[in-house]
Structure formats: structure tokens, C-alpha cells
Amino acid sequence: MTSQMQREGITGLELRSTVTSDRRLILSLEPVRLRPPAAHEVVVAVQAAPLNPSDLGLLLGPADLATIAVEGPAERPRLTAAIPEHAMASLSARIDQPMSVGNEGAGTVVAAGSAVGHLLGRKVAMFGGAMYAQFRKLPAADCVVLPDGASAADGASMFVNPLTALAMVETMRDEGHRALVHTAAASNLGQMLNRLCLAEGVPLVNIVRSDLQAERLRSAGAGHVVDSSSADFAQRLEDAIASTGATIAFDAVGGGGLVDAILHAMERSLSRPAGAFSRYGSTTLKQVYLYGSLDPGPTILNRTYGMAWRIGGFLLTPFLDRIGPAGVARLRDRVAAELKTTFASNYTATISLREMLDPRHLSAFARRATGEKYLVDPSLP
Questions:
Q1: Could you give the dihedral angle defined by the CA atoms of residues 338, 343, 348 and 349, in that order, rounded to the nearest 10 degrees?
Q2: In this structure, which of 75, 84, 282, 327 has its CB flanked by the most CB atoms within 10 Å?
Q3: Helix-then-strand count for the chain, H and E
Q4: Rounded CA gap, 130 and 120, in Å?
Q5: Rg (Cα) of the chain, in Å, rounded?
Q6: Residue 103 to residue 224: CA distance in whole angstroms
Q7: 6 near 36, Cβ under 8 Å?
């Protein structure tokens, strides 16, 4: 960046998502002028930002994608879609407010404040929102310098999935469990968690939805992989849980009967040893955390697994708040050290900001298909 840009700031395009009072979702690319960075701030030219499931709620909301209409010129498209009337109540806090999107990303520092000038020209990973943009200004403390030889694409997914995998293992240990169950396990996060558990010696039960996904994990060394589409799923899940002793699960699906199946399998495995009958079931706590909504429907429970069970939500941010800055720094340092191994990410395709507003890509995002992960490069035309 020239010294003039350093003094006067820079203008770039940013993706905005707006829910309007007349029940429409509007996606648009808007010019944003960034003022010069303060002493401890940097401006980063964004070169890679993943599209995570956690981004989709803000990006698309409950819009009916079958109603998409494209407006505006090809270089600056604008998309609209209808929102069902029943969904508007849950969106009241964001009506008519353009929202920036994108939890994390990576790129090159093109301007730096007086206290962080050493970062100028360095490749960094970032966390803090508004990453679907050509430029992002943020505190230098929210950036991590990438290791030598790492590209922006290598560092783009350095935060959400890696820190979530580490948080799952730490939560398991903190709560006194010895093994865990994970659903949608062939995802990028699932593959990271499998590598992490293998390295840490943590028994892991991976639940997937197809033979192809199961084979992918087995070829990566996974010891227990169960296909929920198989006719003997319930028995295989019970056997895997009995073998590992897993009493905690992290579920990315949310809706349907998968949580119920996991709790039943845990209870049956705990009841295998001979002992006195108890009408209240096992006294060992069975915990399931819901951290995703691949199925947005109701979570269906047939509560016949005793009384020692709990279901709750799991989010990364409260976990990071709990462990504090020193704990977060410890986890971030590990991710940086294992960026191309344990915490490597794979992408289906790399697209531009403009291509994000292509209805075909939006439909692909909305499928939330396991193994399909897009990378956005705002520097592309």
C-alpha cells in the first residue's frame, strides 16, 4: 500500500446481508471506506475466507431460495429472496440492518498502525467477522502471523474448526469423560477431530451418512466409523460405544432422531455388565451437545434411557471466554504449529465475492452437504 493510502485509507467491496421489513433477504456487494489504522490496528487485503455452516445463518437466514431473483449488473449483482412470514419474528433484531458476513479469513497486511508496523507485508489469519470483503481493518491482536511457507488458503480456516475440535476434546476431559461420539464426522471439522483424537489417544466414534464417507475416515486411520444409513446402525453404534466407553457426544445434525439413537446406544452399552436391575437406568451421566443444525427440524426424543442424561447447546465462543486469553493463546499456538497436518482444511472450490451471489453457488451452500466446503477469495475479479 502506498503512503497516501496509509494516510487516507482505502475503499473496497464488502458482502452485506439484509432482512427487510417487507420480508425479503437482500445480498449485495457494497463499497466500504476504511479509515487509516490506529496504532494497534492493521488493514488486511483478504485473500481467503471459508464458508462455514456457522456463516450460513447470517448469510441466508430462513429465506426461501426457490424465490431467488438476480438484479443489477454482472460485476455488482444483487440477489433477493422471499422470507416466510412465520420466520420474521425471530429476525426482528436485524430487520433493515445490512449485516457483514464471514467469521474468519486470511490475507496480507497492507497497512499497519504505528505500534504494529512489523506486521506490514505479513500473511495473517484473522477472526472477528466481516471477512467476505476485499479489505478488513481490525486489531492486530485478532490476527495470527502464518508460519513461513503457509498460504492464505492454508490459514483461512485456522480458527472455527480447529478451535472447535480442540474445545470438544478439552470439554470431554474437563467433564470427566474418556471417549466421545461425533456426528457428520466426514466434514472438515470431523476429519480434524479424527486426526486430533488419534494424536491424543482419545477413543472416538465417528457417525457418517454413507459408505463413501465411512471409507474416507477409515483410510485416515479412524478406528470406529458407523454409517447411520445402514440397516444395523443401532447395533453397530452400541458396539462402538461399548468398545470405547464414550459417554459424551457432539452432534452437528440437530433435528431428527440421531441424538435419541446416541443416548439409547450409550444406555444399552452401560447396561451390558451384569448387575442389579434399576428402573431408573444407569447412574452414569450421558451428555449430548448440539453444535449444528444440518437438520433444522425438531430434535425427537423417546426418553427411555434412564434419568442420567443431559442435552445442551455447544458454542465455541463461550468456551473460549471460559478458558481466558492465556488458554486461547495456547490453543492458537498449537493450531499454527500443526496448520498443514492435524488442522489442514480441504475445499470443494474457490470462488470470488461476485460468484458468492450466483444462485447456483447459494443453492450449494444451503445444502450443507458433508465434504463440500467453499473458499472465498475476495481478491478474484
A1: -50
A2: 282
A3: 11, 20
A4: 21
A5: 22
A6: 32
A7: yes
Cell of 132: 467476505
Q: What's at 308, amino acid-wise?
A: A
Instruction: Return d(Cα 168, Cα 126) in angstroms, integer.
Output: 22
Q: State which amino acid sits at residue 151.
A: S
Nine cell digits for residue 220: 485416515
* Structural domains in the chain plus CATH codes: 3-157+345-376 (3.90.180.10), 160-317 (3.40.50.720)
Nine-digit cell string for 197: 483424537
- What is the pLDDT tens value at each position of the chain, 381 positions in all? 445 556 677 999 999 999 999 999 999 999 999 999 999 999 999 999 999 988 988 999 899 999 999 988 877 889 999 999 999 998 999 999 999 999 999 999 999 999 999 999 999 999 999 999 999 999 999 999 999 999 999 999 999 999 999 999 999 999 999 999 999 999 999 999 999 999 999 999 999 999 999 999 999 999 999 999 999 999 999 999 999 999 999 999 999 999 999 999 999 999 887 666 677 889 999 999 999 988 989 999 999 999 999 999 999 999 999 999 999 999 999 999 999 999 999 999 999 999 999 998 888 887 777 767 899 999 999
371: cell is 465434504
CA atoms of 356 and 365, how far apart (whole Å): 9
Q: Would you say 131 and 105 are in contact if contact means Cβ atoms under 8 Å apart?
A: yes
User: Which ranges in the chain belong to alpha helices (H)?
Assistant: 3-8, 53-60, 152-155, 160-174, 188-200, 211-219, 233-244, 258-270, 316-337, 353-356, 359-367
